[in-house]
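Deliverable D5.2: sample structural annotation.
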Amino acid sequence: MKVGIIGSGMVGATAAYAIMMRKAASDIVLIDANEKRAIAEAQDIMHAVPFAAATDIYAGSYEDLKDAKIVVIAAGASQKPGETRLMLMEKNASIMRDIISHTAEVNPNIIFLVATNPVDIITHICVDIAKEFGIPSTRIIGSGTTLDTARFRTLLGTHIGVDSQHVHAYVIGEHGDSEVLCWSNVDIGGVSFEDFTEFRKILFNDEIKQQIDDGVRNAAYKIIEGKGSTYYGIGAAIAKLVDVINRDNRAVLTVSTFKEDVEGIKNVTLSLPHLIGGEGDLGVLPIRLNVKEKSLLKSSAQIIREKIDEYEKK
């Protein structure tokens, strides 16, 4: 169960550490344009192996991906002063093409996990590039709102005093400001959220709901303000995806994938609950949304589609 990670920055290195701690892979190869950084991160993580699980972690090249099942894309350019969003997108598209072409050359059957932001647009670009190499969209999976969903479940669990792993709730749409928190189908161990809070006599009102919404939607901004970037949460989300694919666990996760139609918006890439297994994306699952949530999802899809149009018309 070998995994490749392209990009040894904070997200890539943290993902490697989380994969090792989770025992989600037997081999992890770090690939980075900055070879010294990749070597240093690999050595540092390797020194933690005696305290966790036997894993071989090393810096390598694309040749090392020939027997890997998954490659995580955590590489990308940062926006520089005076650089427009479109200029940055073009630069990152070039990086994605380089990664996919080099990987497909040695291993055309690999599954790509995209973590580079803006993840929905980058995943959409990767799907288009992958087509040129005969790679189906089912093997291009963006991390999407997996982390946003985890934040939602964490805050809900904290409020009601329940382990977040027993809170079932989804965040869908864009991994960004227009994401949609699906309040209408939250359940706690199979019990509806409304019934649970009423039975347990837990206070829940519009003010608390707004606080949780804000905590989910603005989490990244607050973390970045405090320490510059986020990486633990997304690192753990990537490790979960790697574990599910490597073990064919068939878990339901809110990943970002290409959709032909979302609430009337054509050819867009965003997050919905998907069944994920050993072959990658096994398909979207039906989710019941109320009228307001459907409208918000359509708006979110439209925002993403407009950004894609901006890039495609360059």
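Annotation notes: The radius of gyration is 19 Å. The first strand starts at residue 2 and ends at 6.
The annotation will be released with the project's public dataset once the embargo ends.
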